[in-house]
What does this fold into?
Amino acid sequence: MSPWRKLAYAVLALALAASMAASWLAPAGYARQYRETTDAPPSRAHWLGTDELGRDRFARVLYGTRISLLLAPAAALLSTLMAAWFGGLPGYLGGVWARLAMGVADLFLSLPWLFLLITVRALMPLNVSPFVSVLLTFMLLGLLGWTAAARVLCASAGSLRSSDFLRQARAAGVPPFRLFWVHVLPNLRPVLCAQFWISIPVFILSEANLGILGLGVAEPLPSFGSLLKELEGLVSVGQEPWKFVPVLLLVLVVTSFQLLLSEQAEAAA
Amino acid sequence: MRLASKITGHALSLLLILLLGGLLSATLVRLAPGFDADEQELDPHLNAQSLQALHAARHHDDNLLRFYFSYMRRALHGDLGTSLALGQPVRTLLHDRIPLTMRLLVTGLGLAWMVSLALALSAAWLDISAYDALTTVVSGMFLCIPAAVLALLSVLWNISGSLVIGLIVFPHTYRYTRNLLTKAYGRPHILAAKAKGIGEARILFRHVVPVVGPQLLALAGVSVTMAVGAAIPVEALCGLPGVGQLAWQAALARDLPLLVNITLLVTLVTLLANSAADVIGHVMRRPEA
It folds into this structure.
């Protein structure tokens, strides 16, 4: 294992461990307001200061990281399963099914991702509870983010269609659905795993973009997006540098995922 | 002959998408909350008969297919409806904002492509691992920063919106271009040309460009899609009154007639860009010896 890969694993493990221990590290929670110390600089009581509503920024960063690190993989899992179904199965069936699946995937891919996201997000109610908004945001990412993976899976399943072991299974009378479930899907596992890992940083960044634009997770629940929204009111970088901690953490987490991905790609090559 | 069939195929798929997108748009507009309501109904001076007449006029659009055909007929005549939130015709809103967005996109894409090509070519020519690593790290860093954060930082540092769009698109175009050029320069016939002492410019234009050209054109089409997507955070957060900001305002106000029309327009623009890139790439492609 290369040193970069080790570092990436260490960063992700540390971020995940700290976010999971949020209730222990920041017992006051992410929503408690300290009204006498609003927009305060870092202190012994508040390591990263407080936001304009007097909430502890350190607690919000921990809880926000937890939400993004747990729900982005969940959304990635959903999109990978959808890609397996809408890309892998038509690819295995071939012919008109594969062409139809590719046509739909191409149409989705030609749409700018953020346009699609805000259009579909705007169709959903915006004044929902924070818990529903967080589920809605990540579910949307999962439901809309399957097309690129589906394209790859369709091509991979198509190349498996004429393989000897599938011909033999077909000749032995194995029903088509069982053939797909028992023989095709397990062979697509490496591609599915790669697509799952690729989707995680994409979804973390997309949630951050949606959050900054006010279309992501609703207050008071923190997420990377809602934490970064604080940067909107900044006048200069040097004035309140602690407000950049969420950005640095986000960049570190996404970079770690990208490092793991590039190492995986190099290993595959 | 093959070129003509390719163009026909693209034109047909664009038409199909226009019809399907129109149906989707009409459905969304028809089902949008508040479609059945009319502000005039709040007028206390109206009597029951007038209210009934207003209701009857609205119920004419109850049938989705009938509504779709009238929507498409109006759209073909340039009437894209009226924005619910801004109370202005969608056509006027788009007409006022398209020039700014176009300027941003063209400049941003131009910058992204110039930097990408310059860095990728120098990486392929120099073949120094430290330089390659440095450019890869820089582009990778931009890949890990959300587009909206770059837009916010540009406000802080007073950087132009087109430069931000360029910075958002650049890491994607650079990485792909670098891989393509590095692979192309490693081909045996190019190594042989180098060994024979043929000039770099001749190698580039006679041997490398014909190989990587079609793929770079395909990437150029995709980069238009990326830049259009980047226009939303850049225009929204930098206060630039373009189509991206309009889409964001429409999303926040749940102004579906406006939002779906913008999305349809953007889809057509990106599909046209991708189709054009595909057709030009097809013309450029020639069987390799």
In short: Chain A has a mean pLDDT of 88. Residues 218 and 266 of chain A are 39 Å apart (CA to CA).
